[in-house]
């Protein structure tokens, strides 16, 4: 279903969110107070306007509260980012995602009602460090503070050619296999207990961070 998004701030982060949403056929209003930035997105976003988002009257006249989701991607000017988030919240925007510059900024944004706070540099750093220190984890997404969805390559020969049921996967690892990626093309979604696990299968598993780590460590 097509949703409406407003992106405030067209730096690298806001700009890349804008392009990706448009590629997914969503409706995007792009706002920035820098005319050059707006010109860059004129032919990309559904609409692009030069406006100072700190001005409440401007935000109201743009109909910000009618958008399904507002993304506040102002980085350096922390005061502007906080003020705009607060105004969007007060206008009753249903979903607000705000970009934080540091931990304190993130905490303030959460407190004033941003639904999702992203901290791209920190998040990428954590992600990369996990990938560098884990044995077989190709990628992962933190679902919450405690739960992770991870892609783990199967290299433990003890499991090759055995079914999920025979391995007693859920009981032994406390993890759920959401999908198995086999080779470049095959994706087995929600595999049944009689599905066999093959060498180099990529398992998409969900579980606590500890259980995902234990499973990763069980690989050869
Ligand atoms: P990135 O890392 O995503 O490139 P950044 O963290 O360096 O960005 P900034 O460059 O500070 O973030 O801000 C992103 C964009 O937000 C800029 O294009 C800037 O012009 C715009 N911006 C800043 N303040 C406002 C405002 N009050 N109203 C509208 N746009 C704004």
TrEMBL record:
<dbReference type="InterPro" id="IPR003148">
    <property type="entry name" value="RCK_N"/>
</dbReference>
<dbReference type="GO" id="GO:0008324">
    <property type="term" value="F:monoatomic cation transmembrane transporter activity"/>
</dbReference>
<dbReference type="InterPro" id="IPR050721">
    <property type="entry name" value="Trk_Ktr_HKT_K-transport"/>
</dbReference>
<dbReference type="Pfam" id="PF02080">
    <property type="entry name" value="TrkA_C"/>
</dbReference>
<dbReference type="Pfam" id="PF02254">
    <property type="entry name" value="TrkA_N"/>
</dbReference>
<feature type="domain" description="RCK N-terminal">
    <location>
        <begin position="2"/>
        <end position="118"/>
    </location>
</feature>
<dbReference type="InterPro" id="IPR036721">
    <property type="entry name" value="RCK_C_sf"/>
</dbReference>
<dbReference type="InterPro" id="IPR006037">
    <property type="entry name" value="RCK_C"/>
</dbReference>
<feature type="domain" description="RCK C-terminal">
    <location>
        <begin position="135"/>
        <end position="220"/>
    </location>
</feature>
<protein>
    <submittedName>
        <fullName>Potassium transporter Trk</fullName>
    </submittedName>
</protein>
<dbReference type="GO" id="GO:0006813">
    <property type="term" value="P:potassium ion transport"/>
</dbReference>
<dbReference type="InterPro" id="IPR036291">
    <property type="entry name" value="NAD(P)-bd_dom_sf"/>
</dbReference>
